[in-house]
């Protein structure tokens, strides 16, 4: 259990985000329980007949959701899972049994390798190999050059920890073809596949159709409460349902999650292309303002004027986001940046950034945050972003100076 100070900080952040009049993205976690439940009760009738009896073991609204997602992604069958971690464990171990090879080719920054406590090996007895360690998806040449056979190639689309990056369409087609040349099946970790259509210039059904199985999430891009879906052939999904039960994921009274997922499909899915387009506006404005000289130090670029820039160093990655999410890196401790971010929200009602984390790579004192642009962010102009950057960096420099004076780190 987290200590009291950590819980207090979390409550402070949530209260600040909830009260902010201008924010790039709102999640379910930003609203109290009562508001979330009331919103679901008020809106669910627009996507399902609430006069039906409650779904118990997945034979009502959950089954409707399964049918809809299977058709949307172009597969004959789908199975609802309480978590994506479980869905992928089941998919990958099922493919291992079918191919006779328990080795999975996967990126070292992919979710199962970083965020699941080694579950693929500990729970599912699978072994992973890495065709590349570069912060991008593997190329077809790297797949062909992999030293040993593998039964399944798992591709996380987009690769979140590398900056929500995607290959080009031609690169993706080539990678899948290279895996098939090696008699491997292909599984997509599509937790955020929904927002990849803009980058690829292809509909969801065509993108998903490259793979033998796909997992998608409902609570990330679509704003659902929880839950995931695994789609594939009828026989794979039938086997997956058996393994779901063995893993403790038997579907029981999941109708609230299913209803919120249906709402996400109806509301958020059509809007995602507009979020991706506006994320590019926001990213460009962030980069432009970070590179500007601090106000009052001259005009023109920092390089031309010799003035001190708004940020001593920064990185917006990718410079043109592939999805509606991207990374920002700054050379300050995460504690300094988090305090500046929450103070900006509290004092101005503007929430530019959310959580910052130590980068985990590179020199000490470099931190990274993930920026998401959704419905609330569409109201932001480029000038709004630039103004918010200036206000944020003024607080960052104040916090950094206070930390330095207290002997906790260098001043800017």
Main β sheet profile: 7 strands, mixed
Mean pLDDT: 93
Instruction: State the strand order across the main sheet.
Output: 2-8-7-6-5-3-4
Low-confidence stretches: 297-305
Structural class: alpha/beta
Number of helices: 15
The gist of it:
This protein is of the alpha/beta class and 412 residues long. 45% of the residues lie in helices and 13% in strands.
Core attributes:
45% helix; seven-stranded mixed sheet; four-stranded antiparallel sheet; alpha/beta
Tell me about this structure.
- The chain is α/β, with parallel strands linked by helices.
- It is 45% helix and 13% strand.
- It has a seven-stranded mixed sheet, with helices on both faces.
- About 2% of the residues have low confidence.
- The chain has 15 helices and 13 strands.
- The longest helix is centred in the middle third of the chain and has 37 residues.
- α1 packs across α14, α4 crosses α11 and α14 packs across α15.
What's the helix and strand layout?
Layout: H1 4-19, E1 22-23, H2 33-43, H3 61-73, E2 77-81, H4 84-99, E3 103-105, H5 111-114, H6 119-122, E4 127-129, H7 140-145, E5 152-156, H8 169-181, E6 185-190, H9 197-200, H10 204-208, E7 213-217, E8 228-232, H11 234-246, H12 255-291, H13 302-305, E9 315-317, E10 325-330, H14 334-348, E11 350-351, E12 356-358, E13 367-372, H15 382-405
Parallel strand pairs: 1-11, 3-4, 3-5, 5-6, 6-7
Antiparallel strand pairs: 2-8, 7-8, 9-10, 10-13, 12-13
Helix pairs in contact: 1-14, 4-11, 12-15, 14-15
